Here is the input.
Amino acid sequence: MNSTAAPALIPHQTPLARQEWAAMWPLPFVAMFGHAGAALFAFSSGVFMEPMTREFGWSRAEFGLAFLIQMMVGLVMQPLIGRLIDRVGPRWVALRGIIPASLAVGLLGLVGQPIWQWWALCGLQVSITCFILPAVWITPVVGRFESSRGLALAVVLAGIGVASALWPVLAAFYIPRLGWRLAFPAMGLTWGVIIFPLAFLFLKGPRDAIVSGRRSTAHGHGPQFGEAIRSRTFVCLTLAGGMFAVISLGMSVHLVPLLKQSGMSTPVAASVTGAAGLFSIAGRIGTGFLLDRLPTKPLGICVFLLPLLMAFLLWSANGSVPVSIFAVMLLGVAGGAETDIVFYVAARQFGHGAFASVSATTGAFFGFCASLGPLIAGKLFDATGSYDAWLLAICPLAVAGACLIALVPAEAGHQTQESE
Here is the structure.
């Protein structure tokens, strides 16, 4: 770590971890559920896929192309929203974005048979949802927690685990009772009516961070946006996370159909899929605890290689529920730990003056890469009639991601120890 970045990464007046949690414990949990809402469509779409493709005669690749369109919109919108967060604060953005974002999910229930309507509505939905992008929820926590930043960040990012555990099961509950059209607004409103009052009460950004009578010293330090995105750390982290995002969303969208292909019923497949979310939460919390104590790079390499074992287990499961559950557990743990590592290193390396802009840019790239996952998996399924080719394609992506983590400068990998 270069000496000029050190003051931003190791504040001289760091509050004790227990003081941070005593003063601000609701914030990470509110941000966690907010983060889960940003991923509502991504993690529930696999349950909507079959009734919609059956009714309209679409292929799964056509259905999955909506994710590419969404991520292309996000690639443009997210950096702009990140700059807005840096200027006006995450609270201002979140409180003006929650209600429109929850209502935008309901728009998807208006789609007709022409596939262009599905693509157009998905593009409109994500353009509104960008106002509740992950940076809105991550930024206040990174700015207000210093001594226990790894654990607090892990709690926020566990929102993805909550999303993968909650939204498929809730969609499987709503669709048989309401039909898939009404299930879309029911999903959006379920999240919106819960998160808005919580965000109003507890979501406070770095500019409001006061712990034990002292304002957080972290805000405003670190390299500027242009300098940060040219760094080797940013490039390696962004590319590695992008590789993993292809695997993660491709598996998330196609996991229920993949498990059903092996002979499981829809409720059983949805329940097994929910295990990924539960273990994603465990993976994030455990990784957050370790990030405050251990070097980041070796941990990251191990995490990025976990999809290799997951793919092998799913390929060889032959309908075995216990083996499938274990494979999905590994997917959840890896997915939980991966983003912990990426955003933790980014927060330590780049400070917080432009953190929202940096994380939003990284997140936009992750989103673009993630959109390729459902498309690739769908294309391979349409071409071969099975998901075996998709499971094979996961392997080089996992190895490439681990190699990129290995190329992260050594200073970033040791910041956790230096900050003790």
